[in-house]
């Protein structure tokens, strides 16, 4: 009976298995279709991380740029020196096809900037002109200040009653890890100037779109609307904005401020993008980089010398591996980002006929704080690939993020043209203490954090080069 029973069980098992085989085969096929690195590739990604955590190349690049060139205002002679520096640096590091792709642009430069409370008390104020601001009349303007707590409050104000006044928008920016407070805070740059102009004001002041608690005003680009006569605009440091508010609360008479801004403009100057490559086995392109220009107040270490250094050093580590990468790795140092993403637009236009070969693109442009999250901008059917990156980066303390990555400001025109992107989100808790101020200098960069960035970028670049498959939406053949 036992033998008979056993035989029955075996027969049943065989029959049952025969019915399960198709499902099992499907499961195995699905498992095989799941994106993954080979064991050798996974070990290589891990070795790249190990190497980057001991590597000082990014620091050397950043020290060289900030020391030998310094501030690099878009379109300036200093930015031209930076382009020559960038091309020489890429060639010295062994990158191929190094070139500078130039473009023309309008130019703006600050000459001098002062402000002071002249009545009923006297106080010097720390200000900086916003990029593209017009100058005040010679000798400056002196007028009564009218305060608005937010930009919407100004936008809702009557169009009459502010003629000859100075409009002051006192909107505070919120400190966040991911910098999300900046998007709405920065709207007051152009908004305050345009709303002040519509109301007949003679100038506009804003509380800096930054989080610094020291007397370092925060500059940045603004644009005038076509329907206004431009008025000069400057940003007050946060402590000086506080001072102005206190004076206005204590004063029994109108508070008057004198603002004196001098600027220089040119209709056309030259800027450019610096490009170098690690040629791959295919002509598919992985595009990474940072923007080479900076504002003129600091030395552009955090914004965005760090991004240039991180992506260059990471790509160099991948390029030093034995054999060619599968896909070509293109490093770009974008020009004139700060004054309107001009290098980004020029690159997208110049390379429009090869954008379909851009497999992935990303920019490092948020300082040098440690990377804490990996976000994607992949097609939905390519999202399983994100897990490959997340697995490799987890040892660095980098967690998974959403599929709403921007890729970085200069990647915007590429993303809008359909190029998939990714973002390595950095801890930006103190980024806006430094960004666009005189405090943006090399001493603010932490070496260990810089190394961790390079490690994350090296692994991501390597995986992007070697992981099979596309990141775009699959198109159905009719």
List keywords for this structure.
3-stranded mixed beta sheet; 11-stranded mixed beta sheet; Aminopeptidase; 478 residues; alpha/beta; Glucose Oxidase, domain 1
Q: Summarize the amount of helix as a percent range.
A: 25-40%
* Quantity of strands, as a count: 14
Write out the CATH superfamily name of the largest domain. Answer: Zn peptidases
- The gross shape turns out to be elongated
In whole angstroms, the N-to-C terminal distance is 62 Å
User: CATH top level of the largest domain?
Assistant: Alpha Beta
Class computed from helices, strands and strand pairing: alpha/beta
Q: How does the major sheet shape up?
A: 11 strands, mixed
Count of folded domains: 2
- How much of the sequence lies in strands comes to 15-25%
Under CATH, the topology of the largest domain is which?
Aminopeptidase
Order of helices and strands: HHHHEEEEHEHHEEHEEHEHEEHEHEHH
């Amino acid at each position: 009976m036992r033998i008979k029973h056993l035989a029955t069980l075996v027969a049943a098992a065989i029959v049952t298995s025969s019915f399960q085989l198709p499902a099992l085969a499907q499961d195995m096929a699905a498992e095989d279709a799941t994106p993954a690195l080979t064991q050798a590739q996974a070990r290589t990604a891990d070795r790249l991380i190990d190497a980057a955590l001991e590597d000082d190349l990014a620091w050397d690049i950043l020290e060289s740029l900030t020391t030998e060139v310094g501030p690099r205002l878009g379109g300036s002679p200093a930015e031209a020196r930076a382009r020559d520096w960038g091309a020489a640096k890429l060639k010295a590091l062994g990158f191929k096809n190094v070139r500078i792709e130039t473009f023309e642009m309008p130019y703006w430069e600050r000459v001098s900037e002062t402000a002071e409370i002249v009545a009923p008390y006297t106080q010097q104020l720390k200000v900086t002109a916003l990029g593209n601001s017009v100058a005040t009349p010679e000798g400056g303007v002196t007028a009564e200040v009218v305060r608005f707590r937010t930009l919407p409050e100004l936008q809702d104000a009557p169009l009459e009653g502010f003629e000859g006044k100075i409009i002051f928008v006192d909107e505070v920016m919120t400190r966040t890890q991911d910098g999300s407070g900046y998007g709405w805070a920065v709207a007051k740059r152009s908004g305050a100037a345009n709303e002040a102009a519509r109301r007949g004001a003679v100038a506009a002041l804003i509380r800096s779109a930054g989080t610094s608690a020291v007397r370092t005003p925060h500059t940045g680009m603004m644009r005038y609307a076509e329907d206004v006569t431009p008025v000069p605009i400057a940003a007050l440091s946060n402590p000086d904005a506080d001072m102005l508010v206190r004076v206005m609360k204590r004063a029994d008479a109108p508070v008057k401020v004198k603002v004196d801004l001098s600027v220089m403009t040119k209709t056309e100057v030259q800027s450019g993008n610096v490009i170098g490559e690690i040629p791959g086995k295919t002509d598919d392109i992985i595009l990474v980089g940072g923007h080479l220009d900076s504002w003129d107040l600091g030395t552009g270490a955090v914004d965005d010398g760090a991004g240039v250094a991180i992506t260059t050093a990471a790509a160099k580590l991948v390029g030093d591996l034995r054999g060619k990468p599968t896909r070509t790795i293109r490093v770009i140092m974008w020009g004139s980002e700060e004054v309107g993403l001009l290098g980004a637009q020029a690159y997208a236009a110049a390379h429009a006929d090869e954008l379909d070969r851009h497999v992935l693109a990303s920019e490092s442009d948020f300082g040098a704080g440690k990377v804490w999250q990996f976000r994607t901008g992949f097609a939905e059917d390519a999202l399983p690939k994100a897990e490959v990156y997340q697995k490799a980066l987890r040892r660095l303390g980098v967690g998974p993020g959403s599929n709403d990555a921007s890729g970085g400001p200069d990647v915007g025109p590429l993303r809008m043209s359909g190029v998939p992107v990714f973002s390595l989100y950095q801890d930006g808790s103190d980024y806006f203490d430094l960004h666009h101020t005189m405090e943006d200098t090399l001493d603010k960069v932490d070496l260990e954090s810089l190394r961790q960035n390079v490690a994350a970028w090296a692994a991501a670049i390597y995986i992007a080069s070697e992981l099979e498959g596309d990141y775009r939406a699959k198109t159905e053949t009719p």
